[in-house]
C-alpha cells in the first residue's frame, strides 16, 4: 500500500535527483491504488498534482543549493492541469518564472540555470519537456512582472488567434514557490481586465469552443478513425470543453479559482452561468473524469499505456446513456456561450 503522505515526506527529504526519480516511479501505481479504492477522480487529480508540485519545489530547492540565493525575488509558476490540480499520472511540463521588476540583465544567467536544472530534472522524473516549449527555460516565459503584464495586456486588448492559443495554459496559472505575491498581484489585475470584457471574451470563445462533443445526427456517437477506431476521445470531446467553458466563466466574472470544479461552483448563479447549468456541467465533468479513471485503471493493470479513447459499446447501458447525456450537456452549453458571447473571427 502506497501512502501519499509518505511520498510527500520522502520528496521533502530527497537530497539528489536520483532519489526523486525513484519516488516518481511510484506515481502510476499510486494512480491504480487510488482508483481501485473507489475514490473520486477529482481527489485523484489533487493527490497526483500535489506530488508533481512537491517534486518541482524540491528540484528548485536543490538548484538553489547549487546556485546560491536568487539575485532578486521570483515566483515559480505552473500552468495547465497541474495548476488546476487535475493531473493524472505523468504529464508534460508547463512552467514559467515571474521575476521581480528589480531584475537586471546580468541576473538572467542565474534564472536560466535555475530553469534548466528544474526542467531537466522534471523530464528525468517522467514529466517530459513541453512539446510547445512552454517552460521556464524558454526566455519568453521567464519574465519580470512587467514583462508578464505586457503579455497579458496584449492577449486581452489585442487578441490574435496565435496569442489566444495560449489561453488554455496561461489563464490557468498558479504560483507554487518563491514570492507568491508576484503572481497574485498579476492575477488580480488580469481578472479586473477580463471581467465583463465582451470583446476579449467573444474572441476567447472562438478558441474555447473549438473542441466539440462527439455527437452527430440523432445524437449518435461520432467515433474516431484509425488508430482509435470505434472509440470516442473522452478528453478532447468531453473533459477539455468543460475546462474551457469554466475558464471563460471565471474570466468573465472575475473568479480567482483555477480548479475547474471550483470555477463551476463559484460562478454558479452569475450572469455567466445559472445554478442549473453549473450542476449539469459538474455532473458531466465528474462522470467523464471517473469514467476515464476507470478506463485507465484497466489499461494500467494490463501493462498498457493509459489513454483517453473509450469504446461506447464496451460500456454498460447506464454508462452509455450517461455518456451521451454528458455530451448533450456540453453541446447545449457551448451553444449558449456562442449565442451569448459570439465566436469572433480572429486574425492570426
UniProtKB/TrEMBL annotation:
What are the DUF294 domain coordinates in residue numbering? 199-340
Looking up CDD domains in the UniProt record yields: NT_GlnE_GlnD_like
One annotated GO molecular function is: [protein-PII] uridylyltransferase activity
Residue limits of the Protein-PII uridylyltransferase N-terminal domain? Answer: 25-160
Out of the domains of life, which is the source? Bacteria
Q: Which InterPro entries match?
A: DUF294_put_nucleoTrafse_sb-bd (IPR018821), GlnD_Uridyltrans_N (IPR005105)
What's the protein name? Nucleotidyltransferase
